[in-house]
Amino acid sequence: MEFSDFDNRGYRTVDVRTGYGEWVASYERTVEDVMDIGLLERLREPSWAAVRRAADLGCGTGRTGAWLRGRGVPAVDGVDLTPEMLELARRRGDHDRLVTADVTDTGLPESAYDLVISSLVDEHLPDLHPLYREAARLAAPGAAFVLVTFHPHFIMTAGMPTHYTRGSGEPVAIDTHVHLISDHVAAGLAAGWRLVELHEGVIDDAWLAVKPKWERFRNHPISAAYVWRKDS
Ligand SMILES: C[S@@+](CC[C@H](N)C(=O)[O-])C[C@H]1O[C@@H](n2cnc3c(N)ncnc32)[C@H](O)[C@@H]1O
């Protein structure tokens, strides 16, 4: 589904590498933990402390990897398309291996991970199937795939793409795609995953504490976390 059908901002749009290559300077100050970390904290599984090796797809500056390490995951490999984002992850030091690659073709070893995770990445992919297939390739039997995503309802209602503000003050959009919940379910099932949990994050008091001007969106869903399992 094309984001342009819902766009009510009309920002100039750039590709992922260009966008995150610029946003990197302020990314950590602008991304809100309540969007993704808040949802990860609600999951009943996987048992984080039991994970031996995780693949962090679209690891960016390493926020998710740092959270995983804090939960006791001993080894995390990260993949991202944007070298500038990876450089911050490298300095942060929570990943064992960091690879510049596409999340749909990572080059990481097959069946090597008991957790594959991808947070706030898939809205940049035109098609979800290659991501779910690559996650399935990386996953060991019994592994979990945790995917945190922008909720399609929010993108449609707010008409707001993923965007950042340039030093000049100009807001710039990064290529954004709208994926329905049924698109995720179809892609996950087609890749052989079994859905075991799905949580939706809404704009609540915790959100409004960090974004008071979003009162008009109170109770609207903004993000979602899927937990998929590969059969043993
Ligand atoms: C919103 S950031 C999320 C980063 C990190 N997961 C987090 O939660 O902070 C999106 C990241 O996905 C990366 N990305 C987007 N499309 C990608 C693709 N096709 N392959 C690899 N990385 C991609 C971007 O470079 C960026 O670092």
Describe this structure in words.
The protein is an alpha/beta fold and 232 residues long. It has a single domain (3-229), classed as Rossmann fold, CATH 3.40.50.150. It contains nine helices and ten strands. The strands form two sheets. It has a seven-stranded mixed β-sheet, with helices on both faces. α4 (63-70) links the parallel β2 and β3 (76-80). The longest helix is centred in the middle third of the chain and has 10 residues, at 83-92. Bound molecules: S-adenosylmethionine. S-adenosylmethionine is lined by residues 16, 20, 31, 36, 58-60, 63-64, 80-82, 85, 102-103, 119-121, 124-125. This is Class I SAM-dependent DNA methyltransferase. Residues 56-146 form the Methyltransferase type domain. It holds the Pfam family Methyltransf_11. Keywords: Methyltransferase, Transferase.
